[in-house]
Amino acid sequence: MKKNQDFIKRENQNLILDLIQEHELIARAKLAKLANMSPTTVSRITTSLIDIGLVKETNQYTTGVGRKATLLSLNPDSLISIGVELDEKKIRLGFFDFLGKAIITEEIEKEVKDSPETVITYLKQTIFQVIETHHLSRNKIIGVCVGIPGWVDNKNGVVVKSAQLGWENAAFGQKLQEVLPFQVLVDNELKLKAYAEKMFRKDKIEHTIVVIDFGSGVGSALIVGGDVYRGFLNAAGEIGHTIVNPNGMLCTCGNIGCLQTYVAEGFLIQEASKQSDASSLEDIVEAAQYGHKWAVNILERAITYAAITVNNSVCMNNPDKVILTGKLIEQTDYLKDRILKESRNRIWLPLSDSTTIEISRLGKNGVILGAGMQSQREYINQLNYEKELV
Amino acid sequence: MKKNQDFIKRENQNLILDLIQEHELIARAKLAKLANMSPTTVSRITTSLIDIGLVKETNQYTTGVGRKATLLSLNPDSLISIGVELDEKKIRLGFFDFLGKAIITEEIEKEVKDSPETVITYLKQTIFQVIETHHLSRNKIIGVCVGIPGWVDNKNGVVVKSAQLGWENAAFGQKLQEVLPFQVLVDNELKLKAYAEKMFRKDKIEHTIVVIDFGSGVGSALIVGGDVYRGFLNAAGEIGHTIVNPNGMLCTCGNIGCLQTYVAEGFLIQEASKQSDASSLEDIVEAAQYGHKWAVNILERAITYAAITVNNSVCMNNPDKVILTGKLIEQTDYLKDRILKESRNRIWLPLSDSTTIEISRLGKNGVILGAGMQSQREYINQLNYEKELV
User: Fold this and answer.
1) Pair A360, A211: CB distance under 8 Å
2) What ranges in chain A are assigned the alpha helix state H?
3) Which one has a higher pLDDT value, A202 or A227?
4) Do B350 and A4 lie within an 8 Å CB cutoff?
5) ipTM for the complex shown
6) Which of A233, A236, A243 sits opposite B312 (nearest CB)?
7) I need a labelling partner for B15 at 20 to 30 A (CA). Which of A90, A351, A379, B44 fits?
8) Residue B294 backbone class (left: φ over 0; alpha: ψ -120 to 50; beta: rest)
9) Most A CBs within 10 Å: which of B153, B316, B354, as the mutation test of the A interface?
10) Does A244 contact B239 at a Cβ distance shorter than 8 Å?
11) In A, which residues are within 8 Å of B348 by CB distance?
12) At residue B221, what are phi and psi to the nearest 5 degrees?
């Protein structure tokens, strides 16, 4: 990527927005100091941001020494973005203000094998219905971003492959764009969740973050330099298909011994079916609590491979933060605690002190929140109001 | 990282230098077109580069239509950098000009367990001896970069851990800096080799490159956006310590079933010792050629896990190019061909078409070349001759 002057303008503008968000209320002088920019530059950027409504001057003033100065804050009502999560059996939507606060969330049911066209119809209906019911201003809605389980060509809005949705090479983004009057983005759901994890940390230190999801598949997402690492075709983080046993079980991808065959929910249920009629992770956990040996063994093995997943991701990416999420983590405290403990045991010793492992605190809104924020960031990056060089 | 205006100045300057290097001879007008910069900006940057001697005007002119224009080229003699590779039993040095041409290479022997202080003495002696013998201008030497097998804190010049050299928390860079009159850098050898792979590609397309080394250990290095991915503490790419078998063999790190226990030379020799007195990879390969079953089995397993390494790296990083290097690849065509074929078989199917696997063509100069180039890039980034905003 050529880093040209448009790029630096965007980066400067994003930095100012990030600093205002972080401090909630901040004076221009402090912005200049923190951003290491001249007062003139800060003034020019903030004036533009106020002109277009993203930032507002408040009635509050700094109380420190020197001249009284108006404090700036983000204008929460300046825009609304929509974040969407597509799952096998449901669609989740969130309408977010500029601070990332959910104004409305909705959940609608779908069939496992609904086509892209059907989902587009649902989305269109629901979005316009919410706008009408809640009297939202259509002009304020700047975009929608849809998080999808699987491999997504985010540049072209194509779902390359989603095992969960049963879609392959679906031009979902393009088709959704045809029926909606604001910008449509499509991305991998875990990459969006990782973006939300980065955006809504309490400490505003720039971390190298790996988010690992243990659910119907196993995936990882890497945040570096504040952005999602995507790889050549936005397919990075497919840790579920790393091979851990050349003599293991057949995976849905055709390879033998993929890591997900030991951890992903579908495979755990398949193993359980040899001994029981368990049809969900919940059933297996319950059987294990009753002391059924088969269930205990399946879960113990899953815990081991979940810990291996954490180690392997740490060795490859050297993050300072690992954030765990997904059904296996959220199901029971027992599984969560065991996976945390085993992960700490198995992390390559030289990196164990410098890597902290956390549990995601975003809950079920993680994907839609990241999607909403991604949509806003893309909108801001495309603003072209600063003609001069800042 | 805050991407400030110094950063964009550096990037613009690097882009111009890269374009001149790529085209060998190029006119300012074409530079402006390719870099998407104004003629004024290009003129200002090239004038600075000519003033400090890195670029020169040639006697050749463009022959196309329009006004005759002088062609620019890099000035190979403008500077010299030194690249160093430390191995168990030898030190390799290269003196490189601004085009990356090796002016002189030297190899000196060392003992496996030589201390940092001993190596520093060797290096100081050899460098000054080469300068004297070859009548090099000391003023032209702008820096030395040392590639080290293991984990290196490149910011502070500390070798955190190198199993091959037997060093731990050695302030090698700082100490070497005390005895040399030009800038000293220290880095992981594979990261430097990967940088050389990126710099000296024939096609100048920006690739996402993974370099995998199969040698005394197993490591990987990722090039993204033209730079080496480093992670939090410059420890990214420790694929040799990803766990592939929780019931496998004990690794030197204390974990069970690390990938390198199936591929790294030392482990292959250790396995071989159960059946033979083989003391090197060469011995095992020879025994396999004689049809000894133990040797065939060890190598077949190594081939399988080498292929798994390639797949796992592709799944995690989604590169478009994988470049293989190291003793296991360079030892015999048989191993190289088998590893290539097995890797292609095992790559996760959805990514197999978009990933090409190559063998490194840099040979034994790869690390020192990357080190020499890294030293030059760092020197150029620190130049502060452009006071105005470009």
Assistant:
1) yes
2) 5-23, 28-35, 39-51, 116-133, 172-179, 189-199, 265-272, 281-289, 293-317, 327-330, 333-346, 349-352, 366-382
3) A227
4) no
5) 0.92
6) A243
7) A379
8) alpha
9) B316
10) no
11) 238, 241, 253, 255
12) -135, 140
